[in-house]
């Protein structure tokens, strides 16, 4: 796969992946970025602008938690709008993957 295509694929599913992680548990941005870097080789720098956008869109809200090893951490949690967006995006993803699988299965 060419690098440009791989980057575009990752960018396209980044928000869905963040919503999926937050649907399991509240988290702070560095923890989310670390998980994404490990699992899908996504650079840490891409997560912070996304988290700000998701907050301004009303999909996530933040709260501070005191840290034993430094300043308080800003945690993110899904809002009702974020949960609804996750449900919708997950359904769209499943339909898209199914369609691509059908095309690939039909290819010679």
Protein structure class: alpha+beta
Strand content: 15-25%
pLDDT average, as an integer? 91
Structure annotation, total helices: 4
- Global geometry: globular
**Rg value:** 16 Å
Instruction: List SSEs in N-to-C order.
Output: HEHHEEH
DSSP, total strands? 3
Ranges with pLDDT <50 over ≥5 residues?
A: none
How are the strands of the biggest sheet laid out side by side?
1-3-2
Helix content: 55-70%
Distance between the ends: 19 Å
Describe the sheet with the most strands: 3 strands, antiparallel
Note down, in words, how this protein is organized.
It contains four helices and three strands. The chain has helices spanning 3-24, 29-40, 47-56, 80-106; strands at residues 27-28, 60-67, 70-78. A three-stranded antiparallel beta sheet has the order 1-3-2. β2 and β3 form a beta hairpin. The longest helix has 27 residues, at 80-106. The mean pLDDT is 91.
Keywords:
66% helix; 3 strands; 108 residues; 4 helices; alpha+beta; globular
List the helices and strands and how they pair.
Layout: H1 3-24, E1 27-28, H2 29-40, H3 47-56, E2 60-67, E3 70-78, H4 80-106
Antiparallel strand pairs: 1-3, 2-3
Concise structural overview:
With 108 residues, the chain is α+β, with helices and mostly antiparallel strands. It has 4 helices and 3 strands; from the N terminus they run H-E-H-H-E-E-H.
């Amino acid at each position: 796969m060419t690098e440009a295509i791989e980057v575009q694929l990752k960018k396209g599913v980044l928000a869905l992946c963040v919503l999926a992680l937050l649907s399991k548990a509240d988290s702070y941005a560095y923890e989310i970025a670390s998980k994404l870097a490990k699992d899908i080789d996504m650079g840490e720098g891409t997560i912070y602008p996304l988290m700000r956008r998701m907050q301004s869109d009303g999909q996530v809200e933040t709260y501070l938690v005191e840290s034993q090893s430094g300043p308080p951490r800003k945690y993110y949690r899904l809002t009702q709008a974020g949960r609804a967006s996750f449900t919708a995006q997950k359904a769209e993803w499943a339909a898209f993957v199914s369609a691509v699988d059908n095309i690939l299965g039909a290819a010679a």
